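Budget justification note: compute hours in this period were largely spent on complex prediction jobs such as the one shown. Inputs:
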Amino acid sequence: MTEPIVVILAGVTSFAALWIGTQWLRLRPGDLAAGLGKTLECLGMMLVFFAANAVVGLAAIIGGRSLTGVFVSTYVMSDVAILGISFLQGLLFFCWRETKAGRRNRSLRAGRSERRAEQAPIREGG
Amino acid sequence: MTRRTRPSQWIGLAGIGLFLVVAFSPLSNALFRWSAAASDIQAADAIVVLGAAVDPDGTLSCESLVRTVSAVALYRMGRAPIIVFSGPTHEDGPSEARVRADLAGVLGVPPEAIRTETSALTTREEAVRIGGILRAENVRRILLVTDSQHMRRAGALFSRGGFQVFPAPADVRSGAGTSPGARLRLLRDLLGEWMALGYYRVAGYL
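Corresponding output:
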C-alpha cells in the first residue's frame, strides 16, 4: 500500500513543480535534461562523500581500537546522520564547483563582449 | 545529461538505480531470507543471549528486548536450565545484561537460573567471556539467541570455542518488509552484518 502512495505523491508534486516552472518561472522544458545531469552529478558527489566517510570512519574506529584501546562500536557508522552529513558535504562541494564554473563563464562572456566592443570601431573605420 | 558524462554523474545514476531497486523491489527481502540462519531449537545446557543495546536510562533497544523475551520463552518451555545475558554498561547507566536479567526475573525466571556478562564489547569478546562462564559450569550445548543475520558470525565463534550451537534466531525485522523504508533499512542492516562477517574472516577470528 505504501508504494502507490509514494509514487502518486512524487508524481503529483513533480507535475506541480513542472507547471510552476514552465508557467510562472518561464523555465524551458528542454533544460530539464541539463538539470537532470546536474542532479546526477550532485548526487554522485554526495555518494562519494558517503563512501569516503564510511571508509575513513571504519578505519579510524578499528585503527583507534588497536592503537589507543578506546572502544567505539562500528555500529556508529550505520547511523543515518552520516548519510545526511555526507549529502550536505556533497551538495556544498557541488555548489562550490558550480560557483567557480559560473564565474569562469561570466568572465568568458565579459571578455567576448570587450573584444567585440574593441573590434566595432575598427570595422566601422574599415 | 551533458555531452560528456562525468564520473560523478555515473555514480549518481548508479545510486538512483540502486535506491529504486532496493526500495521498490523485493531484493532486500530475498537477500535477508537467503542469508538468515535457520532456527534449530533443541534441548540444551544453556541459553546464551547476545547483547544489542541499552540507553543510559536503562531502556532496552528493540533488538535487545526481542532477544530477552525469546530467551525467557525458551527457558519457560524447558529448553535449558540456565540463561546467560550479555550486554555491557553504557556510560553511567545500568548494564544491558542487568536490565535484561531484571526483566527476566519479572517474567518468572528464578535468579539462580540467570548469569550475566557485562564486560564484552564485541561479538568476539562475548564468545570468549561467555565461553569461560559456560565452561566453568560444564556447559557444552547452547541455544544461541541473536538475530538471524548475526547468527552466522556469532555461531561460528561459539562453535570454535568448543560448543555445540543450536540457533534460536530472534529478529526485529523480517524478510517480508512491505514498505520502501523497511526494505532500505533491511539492506542497510544486511550490508553492516556482511561487512562485519568479512572483517572477522580477514582478521582470522572465524
